[in-house]
Automatic annotation (TrEMBL):
Name assigned to this protein: THAP-type domain-containing protein
Organism: Magallana gigas (Pacific oyster)
UniProt keyword terms in alphabetical order: DNA-binding, Metal-binding, Zinc, Zinc-finger
Disordered: annotated segments: 98-138
Bias kind Low complexity: ranges: 121-137
Segments forming domain THAP-type: 12-98
Signal peptide bounds: none
Length: 566
């Protein structure tokens, strides 16, 4: 098929702009040549018609490298910078000069093997001679090469000064000084400096032809490498060793002292940290990591003594244990933990989900409901003087969560008290301040009475127990059915000798006594919220393990010193 004749550019280019990725040519800039001098002489050529020249149109679109679904609009065009002859001609009807190929014609690029290029580079430098290239390029092409370093705002330009001669660098002697590489300023350099210094808004470099450009031989010889598979393997090994060193340094830092362990992991001491891990390590030899719904199915290696298939894990069990505690204690983002331990973000999520579930199963039986004898044995003096039969102090705590998508979930989790979407849980502590009851999480709009009645708490109450709570717990009828007593601050009542409601002197004294003791459950909840994953906004993707997170945090709180001293 014969090539089309030379196409005429549009008569009014002010509305046209170049659709080539990375090209800044725009017809509106031609009205401000003082700011955009490189737009002088640039023309815009619209795409061939889809009906008259469909084949040529496809060739243009393939060269432009736009999206597959791209369809040129009315004012989309290709500027003259991308054509070898400055416009579509019979010999060169398709644009071939782009930023991705350094505005070189692909037809003229010499194709050779890597060995041939390397031999050419070696032969060109064997005699320590300097080869000079003085290939001339058009002003438009040079301007597009420098377009990425042009700052259009203030007219300032930062470009390397042209040189009259450039050399081919000897790759075998690259470590030597630059004495073999000569830079001889050409006469154009001083003109460029003087012109640029006199008028910052008029860039002479766009109006003159810079003859000194890097030769093709220099480019080809400069990019050659002697990289082998052994080198690649060595680089991969060095990367793994670097990750290992950084991981060990970080682990040593967060476990170097008792204060560091408390600060980073939320465990009182190093001794207790290794003691807990020793308990967990006994039964986690074949721990199955959560990777989706199908991860619960049994595998062959679990029922036999065969080794678990797959590559060897980067993290040890102890590292995974620390990773999980770090996520729970400080709520460090998964991507940052991955960088600290040298693993992917997905791997961090798998480890955290697996270990939280595993630790919850191990720790939950230790959140025991203490016996009455144990309560009396360790009853603090402050309780013995006022409420010696207190069995438990209860309160509800709320955890902020990310706003759910569905309206139903939003209404079920919205808390009017907090003004946010929350999860709510009923927690109870012994008189010494240890958690003895942690309910499952409920939506934030559920009342305290409803959670108390449906969380299994009442099944643990026996006759003669005293339950201390806030005024909001209207559960006296539930406790009376079990012959237990509710201890709450007294309500105000109507005054007989005046208006309003108030308390008498005895009720005020009782309110103060209850408030002094009930404050300990607030302190326990504050200790629970010291684990930042519970004090911040819980991501909605952690909802499946939110109950387990609460159980693990409550158990770790019980490892600390008692809140109430005897």
């Amino acid at each position: 098929m014969p090539s089309p004749k030379k196409r005429k550019s549009t008569d009014n280019p002010s509305h046209y702009w170049c659709s080539v990725p990375g090209c800044a040519s725009d017809g509106r800039k031609k009205a401000n040549l003082d700011i955009y001098p490189w737009m002088q002489g640039i023309q815009f050529h619209p795409y061939p018609g889809p009906k008259r020249q469909p084949k040529l149109r496809r060739q243009w679109l393939q060269q432009v490298f736009r999206d597959e679904n791209y369809s040129p609009k009315r004012y989309h065009s290709v500027c003259s910078l991308h054509f070898v002859d400055g416009c579509p001609t019979e010999n060169n009807p398709v644009p071939t000069l782009f930023p991705r190929n350094n505005f070189k014609n692909p037809k003229n690029v010499r194709k050779s093997t890597s060995i041939a290029k390397r031999q050419s580079a070696e032969s060109s430098t064997s005699t320590d001679s300097v080869s000079v290239s003085q290939n001339s390029h058009s002003t438009e092409r040079i301007a597009m090469e420098d377009i990425t370093i042009l700052y259009e705002g203030n007219g300032a330009i930062h470009i390397p000064l042209p040189v009259a001669h450039e050399c081919v660098v000897d790759t075998d002697q690259s470590s030597k000084s630059n004495e073999n590489c000569l830079e001889v300023p050409c006469p154009e350099t001083m003109d460029l400096i003087n012109a640029h210094g006199n008028n910052n808004s008029d860039h002479i470099y766009c109006k003159r032809s810079i003859e000194s450009r890097c030769s093709e031989d220099f480019v080809e010889s400069a990019v050659q490498t002697d990289l082998t598979m052994d080198d690649i393997h060595h680089m991969e090994t060095m990367t793994k060793e670097t990750d290992h060193i950084l991981r060990e340094q970080f682990v040593n830092r967060i476990t170097r002292s008792d204060s560091a362990v408390r600060k980073y992991l939320g465990i009182p001491s190093i001794t207790m940290l290794f003691g807990i891990f020793a308990i967990l390590d006994k039964v986690c030899t074949k721990l199955k990591y959560w990777s989706g719904k199908n991860s619960t199915s049994n595998m062959n290696y679990e029922t036999s003594e065969a080794r678990k298939p797959g590559p060897k894990r980067k993290l040890t069990k102890f590292h995974e244990f620390l990773l999980t505690l770090l996520r729970l204690r400080l709520s460090v983002p998964a991507f940052l933990i991955g960088d600290l331990f040298g693993v992917s973000e997905t791997r961090v999520s798998q480890v955290v989900c697996t270990w939280i579930n595993y630790m919850s199963q191990v720790f939950k039986p230790h959140l025991k409901w203490p016996s009455l004898q144990s309560i009396k044995k360790h009853m603090p003096r402050s309780f013995k003087q006022t409420f010696p039969r207190t069995r438990i102090i209860i309160d509800c705590t709320e955890i902020f969560i990310q706003k759910p998508r569905t309206p139903t979930a939003q209404s079920q989790t919205y808390s009017n008290y907090k003004g946010h979407n929350t999860f709510k849980s009923l927690v109870g502590i012994t008189p010494t301040g240890a958690f003895s009851f942690v309910s499952e999480l409920w939506g934030g709009n559920v009342s305290d009475r409803y959670i108390t009645a449906n969380s299994g708490f009442l099944d643990l109450i026996t006759a003669g127990d005293e339950v201390m709570a806030d005024r909001g717990f209207i559960i006296r009828d539930y406790l009376l059915e079990r012959r237990a007593k509710l201890v709450i601050p007294p309500f105000t009542h109507k005054c007989k000798w005046g208006k309003g409601k108030r308390l008498n002197s005895g009720e005020i004294q009782r309110t103060r006594q209850i408030a002094k003791l009930r404050i300990h459950v607030e302190r326990a909840i504050q200790r629970l919220k010291s684990y930042k994953l519970l004090s911040g906004i819980l991501p909605i993707n952690l909802k499946p393990i939110a109950n387990q997170i609460l159980v693990v945090a409550a158990f770790l709180c019980n490892l600390s010193k008692p809140l109430v001293k005897n």
